[in-house]
Design brief:
single chain, Arc Repressor Mutant, subunit A, two-stranded antiparallel sheet, 62% helix
Length: 112
């Protein structure tokens, strides 16, 4: 038996941030390009761009800055904060569920 979960943040019923957005931002940080990030994640540029823009609009906050001269992108401090807090939330939930799973396993063993 294993407890499963998926976490995302919504605003007015629409996704603002989650694992997918986190992955896109991490890939942009690594690749310095949305196009390269999309390729790394095996998704279309259009899909990656759409998710990034939707999150920025829903949060009313820029997540990436572009440098047209260098043709590169970098994360804003706000994006880095979102990544850090989201990943902490995931770690905290994983720890909670690990403990709950152990409790359920114990309960099942006691039944037998």
């Amino acid at each position: 038996m294993e407890i499963k979960y998926k976490i995302w943040i919504e605003k007015n019923g629409k996704v603002v941030f989650g694992r997918g957005r986190d992955d896109i931002l991490q890939a942009i940080d690594e690749q310095r390009s949305l196009n390269a990030a999309a390729k790394k994640l095996e998704m279309s540029y259009r899909a990656a761009w759409g998710r990034l823009k939707a999150s920025e609009e829903r949060m009313d906050m820029k997540l990436v800055d572009s440098n047209p001269r260098e043709k590169s992108m970098q994360l804003t401090p706000y994006a880095r904060t979102m990544i850090d807090r989201f990943e902490k939330l995931e770690r905290d939930v994983e720890a909670l569920l690990k403990e709950a799973n152990a409790d359920f396993q114990k309960l099942l063993r006691e039944k037998n």
